[in-house]
Specification:
Mean pLDDT: 88
CATH architecture of the largest domain: 3-Layer(aba) Sandwich
Number of helices: 19
CATH topology of the largest domain: Rossmann fold
CATH superfamily of the largest domain: P-loop containing nucleotide triphosphate hydrolases
Low-confidence stretches: 30-45, 65-69
Strand content: 25-35%
Distance between the termini: 74 Å
Helix content: 25-40%
Strand order of the largest sheet: 2-3-1-4-5-6
Radius of gyration: 36 Å
Number of strands: 33
């Protein structure tokens, strides 16, 4: 029997015959608990398998209809692909009928039909009135124009037609894809003698096989899959769209509860802030307001918190907008997940929508860039390639590793690399460095533009400088220093910039044009420095000797340093290049002659004092000429 990866679900008001219908279709009573059988109502989720006449097997989930069990209803409805809206002919459309229909819409269900039950309990006129009632109710919804079948599960009326329609619609329903990494919201957990912990639910993404590692969140316990059942039969795999039971080793069933998630390790984190696209129910009697206390239901879990409206002051009934949920307790979710939003108290359904991002920060209201980024994220849902592009374009650090991107879009590393290469071929992404970091072309273009503008602005403000300290550039652009380094390397490789030792840069071909006055000042300062040899004067002393204002002296010293005519030894201490070369030769010969540096001999040879000698020696240490060994300086092996 081939399992078709779709799940059929029931929806509708309490006591309208959902469980009886499922039992008639499958031969399985979906009411598991004695309390349910005694009270004649479904209070928890019921699962059954249905073997279609064409040889395929599908799953059916029966959800509770009572308004007090909406949480359980949402937990089951999350994995539904095709819905049977059940309406009793003797009651017609009831409050939970309308609420379930709205919830199905908000959860993204797009296919289904109506089963008008208990037609054997009322006359034909009552049946036709119920049909009219249903037709009016579903108008404007995804069930508008859908078949309305008149059935009685107990009397067998219309059941053959219903089965035939199910086969047809199941065949036309697009199967769930198994793309992405495995994740299953847990519906039920128990321990079976001889097996250990069993976790059941409907996987929402990916595929897993016996022997694979998993983790259970939020507890974080890791285990391995010992066995899998799909619709009560042993199976080598579990995948999205199958109701599954997983036998997991090394996980204590006492530590797991409904609402937890079992998933491939390393991809999912507990989130207390999520960005979302929110739609308010058209039937609401109030608006959704900023900071309203809410409860978010997604998968099999829910959490209370507050809603932050990002692009509006309030959401009126039937309107939609962007929001961030700030939660008291964390959820496990991913972009594209559907959710239902309910008021914290009283518990009424406010709306629902789709999760756009796992937020790292509190999003600010009415910020254009926040709204634009979330809108871009919203437009990318449904396509892993588009989602990856949106995530890459929004990267906080402008670039991201393959591992970071893989975790965000919930695809394996190999899948993510393949998608990145598709983006690269389409001119949307660029691999930087070793290929483990990627950047969107828009972010790269922006980074290049900001870098070039910052360099140009700096040299405009420092006309006498031939080189710029990279540290000054880092301060100006304020993005990841590692990214800046890669960008500078690219600029140098493409001939637009020159990178010099010591952390300096300059635009390719830059030449400082000195005025006649500046040329005179330059020559005077350089002569003073060369005459001073190993007792370099301070800027004040140079100013006095050369007859040049101190401010001009400092500018000329930086110019000479850029040119390489002098070198900064320490702070405002400079040495002429000629003197520095002489000092290096003297240090080298001293060490070679004595097996190590004899400082008094060197001091006398250079005709200087300890005040200047120590900074000179420390400069050679930093330059790799000398090193300390056993309390004295020696030549560093080259």
């Amino acid at each position: 029997m081939e399992i078709q990866p779709i799940v059929i679900g029931t929806a509708g008001h309490i006591d309208h015959g959902k469980s009886t219908l499922v039992s008639a279709l499958t031969g399985t009573d979906p009411d598991r608990w004695a309390e349910e059988k005694e009270r004649g109502m479904t209070i928890d989720l019921g699962f059954a398998r249905m073997d279609l006449e064409d040889g395929r097997r599908v799953g059916i989930v029966d959800v509770p209809g009572h308004e007090r069990f909406i949480r359980n209803m949402v937990a089951g409805a999350t994995g539904i692909d095709l819905v049977i809206l059940v309406v009793a002919a003797d009651d017609g459309v009831m409050p939970q009928t309308q609420e379930h229909l709205a919830i199905m819409h908000l959860l993204g269900v797009q296919r289904g039909f109506v089963a008008l039950t208990k037609v054997d309990m009322v006359d034909e006129e009552m049946v036709e009135l119920a049909v009219e009632d249903v037709t009016e109710t579903v108008a404007g919804t995804f069930l508008e124009g859908a078949p309305i079948l008149k059935v009685s599960a107990i009397a067998g009326i219309g059941m053959d037609e219903l089965r035939t329609l199910l086969v047809k619609m199941a065949g036309e329903t697009e199967p769930r894809t198994s793309e992405g990494v495995f994740r299953m919201p847990i519906q039920r957990v128990f321990s079976a003698r001889g097996f250990g912990t069993i976790l059941t639910g409907i996987p929402v993404s990916g595929e897993i096989k016996v022997g694979d590692a998993v983790e259970v969140l939020p507890v974080g316990t890791k285990g391995k899959i010992r066995g899998i059942q799909a619709y009560h039969d042993a199976s080598p795999t579990a995948r999205a769209g199958h109701s599954a039971a997983l036998n997991v080793s090394d996980v204590d069933h006492h530590d797991v509860a409904r609402g937890d998630v079992v998933a491939t390790p390393g991809f999912f984190k507990m989130q207390t802030m999520v960005g979302a696209q929110l739609e308010a129910l058209a039937s609401l009697d109030r608006s959704i307001t900023n900071r309203m206390p809410i409860r978010v239901h997604t998968g099999t879990s829910d959490a209370v918190g507050e809603v932050i409206l990002l692009d509006s002051d309030e959401l009126e009934p039937g309107s939609s907008g962007l929001a961030q949920f700030r939660l008291e307790h964390p959820l496990v979710c991913a972009p594209g997940d559907r959710f239902i939003l309910r008021l914290a108290s009283p518990m009424i359904t406010l709306g629902g929508g789709v999760i756009l991002e796992e937020s790292r920060y509190r999003l600010k209201r009415f910020k254009t860039f926040v709204i634009q980024e979330l809108e871009r994220q919203a437009s990318s849902l449904g396509s892993s390639l588009s989602l990856l592009e949106a995530v890459l374009a929004r990267s906080v650090d402008r670039w991201a590793t393959v591992e970071e991107l893989s975790s965000t879009i919930k695809r394996t590393k190999d899948d993510t690399v393949g998608l990145l290469k598709e983006l690269e071929e389409g001119g949307k992404a660029v691999s930087l460095g070793t290929g483990q970091r990627w950047i969107h072309v828009e972010a790269l273009s922006l980074s290049l533009e900001e870098t070039r503008d910052a360099v140009s602005a700096w040299f405009e403000a420092n006309e006498m400088r031939a080189k710029m300290d990279v540290r000054d550039l880092r301060t100006a652009v304020k993005f990841d220093p590692a990214l800046l380094g890669v960008i500078l390397d690219r600029e140098a490789a493409e001939g637009r910039m020159r990178l010099d030792p010591g952390g300096f840069l300059s635009p390719a071909g830059r030449q400082v044009e000195l005025s006649p006055e500046r040329k005179v000042q330059r020559d005077k300062v350089l002569k003073v420095m060369e005459d001073a040899r190993f007792q370099p004067p301070s800027p004040e002393e140079i100013s006095t000797s050369a007859g040049i204002p101190k401010g001009d002296v400092e500018s000329v010293l930086r110019l000479l340093d850029d040119e390489g005519a002098i070198a900064r030894i320490e702070g405002e201490l400079f040495l002429s290049a000629k003197a520095l070369d002489e000092a290096r030769e003297a240090v080298t010969s001293n060490c070679q002659r004595n097996g190590g540096l004899e400082i008094p001999e060197l001091r006398d040879a250079l005709g200087t004092t300890r005040k200047f000698l120590i900074p000179i020696l420390e400069h050679f240490d930093a330059a790799g000429v000398t090193m300390r060994q056993a309390g004295r300086r020696v030549l560093k092996p080259q």
